[in-house]
Design brief:
This protein has 300 residues and is an alpha/beta fold. Helix content is 39%, strand content 13%. The protein contains ten helices and twelve strands.
Length: 300
């Protein structure tokens, strides 16, 4: 099947164009109310299936990790095509696999950060002066949103420990990466995602990051017992390894908050291997390696 989503970097207009085409091609796709970024860009959430406890996929949390947006959009495209045509993915009949199930996709949680990483100061619009100051002249590795808050440090998961570690490492305010903000959910992007999760009560969640080819799956005593089994399945399908984060990455993240808030499984998948931003040339090999894993996550 020919893919709608190609290897074009996911600037915001490109993502919007893909979503318009997906809507026109697959009428069973629905769109939940959009969120808005700091600079007013839309944060899209597409759903398929009527199940109340949908599986959630999130990509594009960090600006420089924009390859994750392409991977998730490609997976959504391939999944929809197989569902519509009665086709298979990784030898699995998609219609049968998704019977009675529902899925939700947030292709890019941090559209401002992605624009900054891809387009430089032009992507920061009215915040270009701040981004210029914080980036030191290099926006390619920009991870934060448009006001210098790292969205994967802005959730209420070990917040006191996170703030202590930030101060120990000399992080006291907005930065291109790792500053958690003034308080949990201080940013419109994280506030919207937390609100979405509380309203939808997702069965489990996957958040795509890069890089490292590892899967993070546990957080504290609220981690469900079935999470280890699910993580083993995901690792077996992809060849990725299971691991635990350390340092600042241990606190404030979406995966940790989801587990702690709902007592349901959540996984951080670190796609690919190398140095962020991973090049466009990595897209096809990264995608081919994780497609089966992403499908299995929908079935569990």
């Amino acid at each position: 099947m020919q893919s709608i989503v190609t290897n074009h970097p996911p600037v915001h207009q490109t993502v919007r164009n893909y979503i318009n085409t997906l809507h026109a091609t697959y009428p069973f796709l629905e769109e939940l109310p959009s969120g808005r970024s700091v600079l007013g860009r839309e944060i899209f959430c597409l759903t398929m299936g009527k199940a109340k406890d949908k599986v959630l996929y999130v990509a594009g949390t960090h600006g420089s990790e924009w390859l994750t947006c392409m991977v998730l959009l490609r997976f959504l495209d391939r999944l929809c095509a197989a569902y519509q045509d009665g086709g298979t993915i990784a030898g699995v009949d998609v219609r049968t696999a998704l019977l009675g199930r529902g899925l939700a996709f947030v292709p890019c949680l941090n559209p401002d950060g992605v624009e900054i990483a891809l387009r430089g100061y032009d992507g920061a619009l009215r915040n270009s002066s701040l981004v210029r100051k914080l980036s030191g002249g290099d926006t390619r590795c920009w991870q934060a949103n448009a006001r210098g808050v790292d969205l994967n440090h802005n959730f209420d998961a070990g917040w006191k420990e996170l703030r202590k570690l930030e101060r120990e490492q000399g992080i006291f305010g907005p930065a291109c990466r790792q500053f958690g903000g003034s308080c949990p959910e201080s940013e419109p992007e994280t506030w919207w995602l937390a609100k979405l999760c509380r309203a939808q009560r997702f069965r489990h969640a996957l958040t795509l990051h890069s890089q490292g080819e590892v899967i993070y799956w546990r957080y504290g005593e609220r981690t469900p017992q079935r999470a280890r089994m699910m993580a083993n399945v995901l690792a077996s399908a992809s060849g990725y390894t299971l691991d635990d984060p350390d340092g600042l990455a241990s606190y404030g993240g979406f995966k940790d908050w989801f587990i702690d808030e709902f007592g349901r499984p959540a996984f951080t998948i670190e796609l690919g291997y190398g140095e962020n931003p991973l090049p466009v040339s990595d897209f096809e090999p990264v995608y081919s390696r994780v497609e089966e894993m992403l499908l299995l996550a929908a079935m569990m």
